[in-house]
Amino acid sequence: MVNLARTPLLFSLIIILGCCTLGLKAQNKFLKAITPDQAILQYAGSIGYLSAGIGYDFFKEKSSLSFLYGYVPKNKGGELDIAAVKFDYKPFKVKIGNQLVWHPINPVAFVSYTFGQEFGFEFDSNVYADGYYFWSPALREHLGVTSELKILGDGSTKIRSISLYAEANTNDLYAINWYHDRKGIAFTDIFRLGFGLKVNF
Amino acid sequence: MRNYKLLYLLPLFLFGCGAAEFSPNQKFDSDSPENVNATQITALSRKTPGAVIRIAVSSDTHTDYEDSRAFVNYVNTQGGFDFVMLNGDITNFGLLTEFEGIYKIYAKLNTPFITVVGNHDENAEGNHVFRRMFGEQNFTFSYGGIKFVCHDSNSREHTFDHTTPDLGWLQQNLTQDADNKFIVGFSHVPPIDADFDQDLRLKYEELFNSTPGVLASVHSHRHSADSIYRAKGAGIPFIITNTILNRTFTVIEITNGKLSTHPVTF
Fold this sequence. Notes:
heterodimer, A: 201 residues, Porin, eight-stranded antiparallel beta barrel, 3 helices, 44% strand, B: 266 residues, alpha/beta, Purple Acid Phosphatase, chain A, domain 2, six-stranded mixed beta sheet, globular, Outer membrane protein beta-barrel domain-containing protein (chain A), Calcineurin-like phosphoesterase (chain B), CNP_phosphodiesterase-III (chain B), hydrolase activity (chain B), hydrolase (chain B)
């Protein structure tokens, strides 16, 4: 099941790589467009023990869209493979000296998909009537905030800057549980942390 | 600008409260308890049974922490219970954080508590989480000359493949022995429910009715007032208890092989 689920992902990767290797002049523009603005490595944050991916900046670097693949090893909570797509927005920018930029509070939304047999996109319709269980075990929708500190480079290399960030997120199921038991569950109890590093090109 | 600056502190506040998480679906984290049922059964074995065995049967807490805390407080204040049963559906989505949430609340009971698996607890990685945190889903323990046979009756979660409830396991374990003259069954989904494998229902009911010493089979799942039925109108009582969501639990009293029940609202 895991391997089957990975197949489309691998397939699209091969296509992208294939396009890259052609390297024709006409495709230079396209290449530039698909060359990521960031490489990302993240610890925890509900999408793996470690996750890695690429990101693209939008709206004068106020927003970014990133694609991550996360993995939880067996000894860290059971083997899990997770794919995630993240969108964040950085409304504030605080310059600290010449070298540092702080984005203090950035809303972030992401979806995560857990691969594997236990995680159908929806429940088996042969066993469960429509609406018996309303959620998808595999697909989670997350909301959160990040705080990001950007360390600027001196411009001598292709690496323009390096960002360190912390992220607090919750997901649809945690939020539903909180909503139904607001007296019993503290709002802050439904948030989970992650920490990451971005290399900005 | 000043207002913005206060806003800057919000993430810092959340970072202070939260914990790192690898996935909502992870099977354990560094704080997850293990083998809770075995620990609780050992604690129970140290108690001395009186002439009357009193059991508080609670069920279907889902993630209602407020009412679960109220139940724990009630039982601790009231006293007089030999042990507490938690008869399944202690989560909504079978997630680790939900199991841990209820465990932390029930761990404050001053009597042992034994946990049975419910259908919601078998979603996603719930089966793995349950087995690691609580133990086997089919298990027995004894107290005061009574054998308690706890088992998985969540047939729908096993796609009605005729493996659940496990009749072979039941035949082997639903038995009297030298120390235990009486038997009480505990499982989440009652045989009369559509979530119970109806192809196994008659055999299941017959097994309970034909086994000497069986006093009752106790179920939950339906979130409704306590009810009792007997297969074909005779034989042992199949008891279906209420939910903690309704701030109700069921007291079972067993005296000399005679079993009686009554609901308590707290």
